[in-house]
């Protein structure tokens, strides 16, 4: 502690502000001087899960939740009057029971010119794979004047779209467990000219996804289990580096430029995607589909052709089972540029042809990662050729899979 004794309180608070909130709280035991310094941190995270346990009776949870609220109520004090917040996060699952306290927290954060505001009122018991749409737990008041936020996260927290019109400095936006309309997203993209990432999780009432802005600065787009009236997705984003999609299969037209470095594909059914070449990361998960459809093989191979510049590629069990049913059952017609191949697999016999397909299609492969996952095998699966599973991997591996001899360095 001697090295810190020469530092001013202001400098120590700056150091504490770079710590996670829990770690900042632990500094209070270091000495009497440090006991209250952490409460001036510029990074505040009020998370109900620090207090409320999942594996206890409901009555016990109520007591624990009240302890959490009492902790929040004691927070504002005279030492925080001049505090400028870098980040404020409030995460609780029953905000309606403590609406005035929630309002107090939001007002506290806004009055401190917070740069990153995260309000998460989703319930940890909600199943994101469930089709049920939960009513928002809290509505963000329109009369609240927002500071020039850089990042905004609203989960199970509805809002008036007009609230976003003045937030022109936003770089990162995440909406979850609420209704969102395409018109709202278009207004957001049009007004927030600095926006770099947009994440939608379990949102609904979206008519479709249609993003066309020539000067769009968007670099990351995540669509996670959202409900669309029509599974129709059209995105033209010249600066997009990362695209992640999880949900039902649909018609995709994604136009980027040519810089793809990482792609993650997790399919439950076919899709049609058109990529040009600027993307660094793509993650596609159609796991909600549950039927084997060999007609999808050609579409998947077309998709892989459009991702041929990806250096990192992640695919799922569905892809491994379906892709060999396309016109080219053994390998891609043109080789992929993949350096790191990640397979979500159970190493089931029905996945063998797909694994071989990718090893043959990636002649420059340097790292192969096998992420063992529960089997997702389709009872109506038909292999492209008859084979003996016990002898499938026998033979001259180096001759069959060029990457094994020439470039492969790591198997994990």
TrEMBL record:
Top-level taxonomic group: Eukaryota
Domain F-box per the UniProt entry, residue ranges: 4-40
InterPro entries per UniProt: At1g61320/At1g61330-like, F-box-like_dom_sf, F-box_AtFBL13-like, F-box_dom, LRR_At1g61320_AtMIF1, LRR_dom_sf
Residues annotated as domain At1g61320/AtMIF1 LRR: 149-273
Name of this protein: Uncharacterized protein
Organism: Eucalyptus grandis (Flooded gum)
């Amino acid at each position: 502690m001697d090295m810190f004794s020469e530092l001013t309180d202001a400098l120590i608070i700056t150091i504490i502000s770079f710590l996670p909130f829990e770690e900042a709280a632990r500094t209070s035991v270091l000495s009497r001087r440090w006991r209250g310094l952490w409460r001036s941190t510029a990074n505040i995270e009020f998370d109900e899960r620090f207090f409320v346990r999942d594996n206890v009776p409901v009555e016990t949870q109520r007591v624990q939740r009240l302890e959490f609220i009492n902790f929040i109520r004691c927070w504002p004090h005279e030492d925080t009057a001049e505090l400028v917040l870098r980040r404020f996060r409030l995460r609780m699952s029953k905000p309606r029971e403590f609406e005035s306290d929630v309002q107090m927290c939001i007002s506290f954060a806004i009055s401190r010119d917070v740069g990153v505001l995260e309000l998460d009122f989703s319930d940890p018991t909600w199943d994101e794979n469930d089709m049920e749409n939960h009513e928002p737990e809290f509505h963000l008041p329109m009369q609240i004047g927002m500071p020039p936020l850089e990042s905004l996260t609203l989960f199970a927290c509805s809002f008036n779209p007009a609230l976003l019109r003045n937030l022109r400095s936003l770089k990162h936006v995440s909406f979850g467990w609420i209704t969102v309309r395409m018109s709202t997203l278009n207004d957001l993209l049009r007004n927030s000219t600095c926006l770099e990432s947009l994440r939608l999780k379990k949102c609904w009432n979206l008519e479709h996804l249609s993003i066309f802005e020539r000067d769009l600065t968007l670099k990351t787009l995540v669509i996670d289990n959202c409900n669309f009236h029509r599974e129709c997705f059209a995105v033209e984003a010249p600066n997009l580096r990362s695209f992640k999609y999880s949900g039902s299969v649909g018609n995709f037209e994604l136009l980027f430029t040519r810089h793809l470095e990482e792609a993650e594909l997790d399919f439950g059914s076919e899709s049609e995607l058109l990529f040009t070449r600027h993307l660094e990361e793509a993650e596609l998960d159609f796991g909600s589909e549950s039927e084997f459809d060999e007609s999808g093989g050609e579409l998947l191979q077309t998709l892989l052709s459009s991702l041929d510049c990806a250096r990192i590629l992640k695919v799922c069990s569905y892809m491994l089972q379906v892709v060999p049913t396309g016109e080219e059952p053994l390998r891609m017609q043109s080789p992929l540029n993949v350096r790191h191949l990640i397979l979500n697999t159970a190493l089931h016999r029905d996945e063998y042809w797909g694994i071989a397909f990718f090893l043959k299609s990636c002649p420059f492969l340097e790292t192969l990662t096998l992420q063992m996952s529960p089997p997702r095998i389709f009872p109506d699966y038909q292999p492209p050729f008859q084979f003996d599973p016990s002898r499938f991997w026998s033979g001259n591996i180096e001759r069959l899979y060029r990457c094994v001899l020439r470039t492969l360095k790591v198997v994990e």
